[in-house]
Structures are given as C-alpha cells and as structure tokens.
Write a structure and sequence with these properties.
By secondary structure, the chain is mainly alpha-helical. It has a 3-stranded antiparallel β-sheet. A hairpin with a 2-residue loop joins strand 2 and strand 3. Helix 1 crosses helix 5. The longest helix has 22 residues. It is globular, with a radius of gyration of 18 Å. The two termini are 34 Å apart.
Length: 161
C-alpha cells in the first residue's frame, strides 16, 4: 500500500467540490448586481432557512465566527432585509428574522443558485442526482452526529433511510 494520499479519495473530492462550488457561487453573486457581497447573500439565505434562530446558531450553521456574522447582519439590517428581535426566553439573545423586503432579493439569489447548480450538474441524470442528494444528506447526518460527540454515525444513517 502506498503512503501517498490519493487525490481522488472521496474525502478529497468532497472538499474540492465544496470549495469550488462555494467559489463559483461567490463569483456569480459578485457579478449578479444584487448589491450584496457573497457573504451577505449566503447569510440572508441561511437566515431564511433558519427563520427566527439565534445569531450564534446561524453562525454555527454557516461555519463562521459570530463577529463575522454580526457584520453581515448589521449590513442586512441597514438594507431592511432582516430584523433582530429579543428572544422571549432570554432577552439578551437576539432572534433573526427576514423582512418582507427580503423576499425579492432571496428569490434573485435563488435564481443564481439554481442556474449554478444546473451548470454544475450538467450531464448527470435526474435519478443519479436524486441518489447523490440522498447520499450527501446521509453523510451530513453522520457528520452531525460526530460533530455533536455522539460517535455513532450508523444510528443517524439508519434514521434517514
């Protein structure tokens, strides 16, 4: 067995694809004329999917530092796309919500995402895409269990079948 890592090993391929996909998304957003930075666009979309979540949870889900998120939130709030509301369970914490003004820009970001994925997945059949999507969710569930310190990814895997 060779001691050299295989650049086509699944882990390396996943990392490469994630990095390249993020870079392609950032380029699209930067040139789409949305008036948002790629980080702000990613943040707005994540807020829309985690509507009413705490800032810390959003930062964790995005894999960014809370201070970085705070900068994005300040800008999105100044544009009228989000609002911070006091958490009724903990008045020190803020819950983040999109505003009605965000709907159009989120739709425009979504158009860019859909077009990018159409280009990226060109030549892959619907059945293969569906299977790949299910397998990626499976990997995400396993990694989530590991991240939480559960150490039993097979249980998560069984739960999503």
């Amino acid at each position: 067995m060779s001691t050299r890592p295989d650049p086509d090993a699944l882990g390396f391929v996943l990392i490469d694809v994630a990095r390249m996909l993020r870079s392609a998304f950032e380029r699209r957003i930067a040139t789409a004329g949305l008036g948002l930075t790629p980080g702000e666009a990613r943040t707005l979309v994540r807020i829309a999917t985690l509507e009413g979540s705490r800032q810390l949870e959003i930062a964790q889900q995005m894999g960014i530092e809370p201070m970085t998120l705070s900068t994005y939130l300040d800008r999105l709030q100044s544009l009228g796309f989000i609002e911070r509301r006091a958490d009724p369970a903990d008045r020190r914490a803020k819950l983040i919500h999109t505003t009605p003004a965000a709907a159009e820009i989120i739709a425009r970001i979504r158009v860019e995402q859909i077009e990018l994925m159409r280009l990226v997945t060109g030549g892959i059949g619907e059945d293969d895409l569906s299977l790949m999507h299910e397998r990626m969710k499976h990997l995400r569930a396993n990694l989530s269990v590991l991240e939480e310190g559960g150490g039993a990814p097979s249980l998560a895997s069984q739960a999503i079948r």
